[in-house]
User: What shape does this take?
Amino acid sequence: MGRKLLLDKAHIEGIRYYDTYRSNGGYAAAEKALKNLGPDGVLDEVKKSGLRGRGGAGFPTGMKWSFIAKPEGVPRYLVCNADESEPGTFKDRYLMEFIPHLLIEGLLISSFALGANSCYIYIRGEYAWIPEILEQAIAEAKNKGWLGKNILGTGFDLEIYVQRGAGAYICGEETALIESLEGKRGNPRIKPPFPAVKGLYQCPTVVNNVETLAAVVPIINIGGDEYIKFGTGKSTGTKLISACGNINKPGVYEIEMNISVEEFIYSDEYCGGIKNNKRLKACIPGGSSVPVLPANLLLKTAKGETRMMTYESLADGGFATGSMLGSGGFIVMDEDQCIVRNTLTFARFYHHESCGQCSPCREGTGWMKKVLQNIEYGKGKMSDIDLLWDIQRKIEGNTICPLGDAAAWPVAAAIRHFRDEFEWHVLNPEESQKRNFGLAHYADPIPAPAAV
Amino acid sequence: MAEDKKMFKVKIDNISVEVEPGTTILNAARLIGGEVVPPAMCYYSKLEGSGGKCRTCIVKVTKGSDADPRPMPKLVASCRTTVMDGMEVANITSPEVLDARKGVVEFLLINHPLDCPICDQAGECHLQDLGYENGSEATRYEFKRRTFDKVDLGDKIKLHMTRCILCYRCVFTADQLTQKREHGILGRGDAAEIGTYIKQSLDNDFIGNVIDVCPVGALTDNTFRFKNRVWFLKPVDAHRNCNNPKCCGKVVLWMRGDEVFRVTARKDEYGEVENFICDECRFEKKDKNDWVIEGPRKINHHSVISQGQYVNTVKPLDPLVDVLDGRKPKLLFNIHSESQVNRPEIDLSKIEGPAHSDDFIIKKS
Assistant: This one.
């Protein structure tokens, strides 16, 4: 059994409510932070822990916090990014739904460290039932004196507000989220200035993912030095992985970042292998926007090392032969899945979700979708594949926010690793409408199970 | 205090320039001028917050600053990136930038109707210039282009959304010049459009300026629509004492003969207006007698608008200078004394039939 830090008490009945949470050691970290550590102490522990942002980019949280500007007389804000919209990612939903007090405790500690007296949880509109859970938890915490004025007699005030979004993927981008929170159209801002200097209402703001803020609680509980002992190298601690696709046991798993990808997919503790004894074709290890990896590159890096479930190992080989841990949306595809169709699905998503502010993303995502549609439905040309490559290349890196990159990467990786499948679609327009390409030479190094 | 202000040294395409801290790369390049100036479709120096959206002005920062010489990892929007001391920027000297810009132009054009032959903006359209300079000659886009219905935003302004490149300039204009913005961006992605939500007319003292700031033919002057091509008109600087305190009253009249076809604000070489004008000047005063005419407007001679003008155009060279190569012309022979047919004393009317060379022979006496 891997060690757990976030979900270790998730199985306890009633952990959603304050009394159960408190009697199982909840709010001990908040007590420790507010009474003993002080803001700088908390920041030190988080820096020592090496905690990296769990939203996708993996930016060190301690460093992000230390960037926040502290001008006199200007309020600072902490914003919790619960706009979990990446296809394949549903880990924050689990946290908020089942252990809301863990998030609230994390928000309390983090706000205390940052000196923020107002904290906003920006939650995606589709999670319609979760704001109630959060608001109930906030009310409970406020009743017990963990929120409001002069918390624990330290003179620290904090209010937490829950704000629902209207269901736009782009509002998960931190500056678009801030714009939306201010009541404006959710367009990403042009950086600099960064939110740490001018964020919400032009005040210094830190935007963190739900899981990142929840992870602050165990860090304070066990201390940063102890937290480093979880995981490997710069990937410290545990990570929530939301596994889905053709696996026997889809769901949210907390992993310690020291297991291999193979173990994660095939061990019974986690995904439990591929469904119906099929073979593994490809996997998208970090949510829809990270590059897809064929099975052989997924389990072993290009150098032949075992690929681990860590930030570094999954990124090993760059985008040529690697991918990213991203937000932990682990999408597994078996031999029956069509990569072209899958790429089209993502392209359609990014086309639909592009905010339309900057030209490469606005025009390019739609173009990619249309070209992919042609290929998928047997109307493609050989030159379309090169055209797709050229379009994604011209989107990537030339946009205001990372949505352009996120739209370009899946297309690029699909063509890079599965070009023959695209070519097969073009060369066999009729056959491709009836059956799937199946595995090719790049696929599963694990032998197929014997026929039953 | 102004004297001892530290100036930042910036190199753009290997040309050095000193600028004040806080200047953007684009404005530093405009100080140099010429070809190193990146094209800008959405940035408008008079409108706060504009820029960064069209991505045509992207440049490569090859050296961040003297203090931190690392290059920037991505191409940056020069209109929104401020310079650092010692920064080195590559614009037209970087093939990467030119390639990326070509890509952006292609993106801007794939859904553009390319209806320049019937577009009022033709001849003063930034997208035309941009496509001419950075675009490719053929499109790779095989799909149906996105279209919108034409909308009348009041009786003065026509919105042709299909041509729009979503630069947001008109939104910033309405925000910053008028009392209340009544139009904005609706929808998202490539379905995003400029609109008023529920069809309503834009009616405000300064809303006409959205026509001037629009880089393409998406917002055009309904009072000028299809009246004439801009290159057949002569732009003339003029002014009047406008009662509106926010209006400068300095305009360009676009005339043909004595007829004023349209009135616009005065635009500089980057197509940005020098001062905004009110709607009364723009739409109501279309009589030559309303204005004090200052003289012809100088238009860049590369512009098609300068075709019909005689101002600032190049005079034809005297070909003799080249032919003679510095020599003085000299009289070789006088054709009048040499020619036999040139005899004024012979009266042609007295010759019978057509004249013949024999008739001119000097008879020896």
Observations:
- The radius of gyration of chain B is 29 Å.
- The mean pLDDT of chain B is 87.
- Chain B is about 15% helix and 20% strand.
